[in-house]
Amino acid sequence: MPVMAGLLAPRRTSNTLTTASTNGRAFIRMASTTSMILRGVRKLDESVPVEVIRGRRCLDAGCGMGRWTRVMQRLGAAEVVSVDVSKSALESTRRFNPNTQRCDVMKLPEVHPEWVGAFDFVNFWGVVMCTHDPLKAFLSAAATVRDGDYLFLMVYAEGGLHHQPLTNLQRKIFHSLSSVEERLRFVEHVFHRRWDWRYPLRVNLKNLYLNLRGFHKGTLVGVLDMLEPWYNWVIPWQIIEGWREKGGFREARLLNPKEERRCAYHVLFRK
Ligand SMILES: C[S@@+](CC[C@H](N)C(=O)[O-])C[C@H]1O[C@@H](n2cnc3c(N)ncnc32)[C@H](O)[C@@H]1O
């Protein structure tokens, strides 16, 4: 009986949660943008083992609407503490986890010294790249991991949308628009891959081709997520290796090594 049966987290363009069960063991798997847009869902090559979560004390740092909080709860975490700066994110997560706190992930050890070395599993998914100082954010979360335990990080990689000149052009256009309505209209424009004379001709031709062939468009919320954050860094692997050392981790295991045109690094760190 799959432990994860029936679990469905909110879907996003950039990554989608799927679950699988092998020999009674449940795993978390995620799919990444490039392949999802072109072919559907791509599972991680290696899973986050459920035993690093089940019965453990977990922190969801930058929980957003709480999808990973929900996953950790369903996997049997002993406790999940969910933190974010966004009030609406916390309101959403509070629907299923009362254990939420408004907190800046850049300052976890300063604001919560009792959390230093206190968590068995820290989920840090899609957050550091939205901050002004990704290393500071990483070290802050790293400080909360107990010796011998785990931190799961997802950051954008060089092979994905966030490293493309087109995305930067679209982000520039988005942020030049002054009203919410205009911005939302632009999100739809990007989502539908409409012709745009501000883009290079080859981009428009490619969009035309993708639309004619009926390629998957992702989701509107995914496009908004791509355009809206003020920061959306791409982090090279060498930098992540440096973070491992600075954060006091003995291991940084890449969970999607076989992905072609890798759009994100999914990394399980162990202290
Ligand atoms: C792209 S969302 C990812 C949310 C969630 N981890 C997920 O995968 O669904 C980034 C989240 O990080 C939060 N965030 C960004 N900077 C933060 C900070 N300095 N402190 C706490 N939360 C932050 C945002 O409010 C947002 O909810």
From TrEMBL:
<dbReference type="InterPro" id="IPR029063">
    <property type="entry name" value="SAM-dependent_MTases_sf"/>
</dbReference>
<protein>
    <submittedName>
        <fullName>Class I SAM-dependent methyltransferase</fullName>
    </submittedName>
</protein>
<dbReference type="GO" id="GO:0008168">
    <property type="term" value="F:methyltransferase activity"/>
</dbReference>
<dbReference type="Pfam" id="PF13489">
    <property type="entry name" value="Methyltransf_23"/>
</dbReference>
<keyword id="KW-0489">Methyltransferase</keyword>
<dbReference type="GO" id="GO:0032259">
    <property type="term" value="P:methylation"/>
</dbReference>
<keyword id="KW-0808">Transferase</keyword>
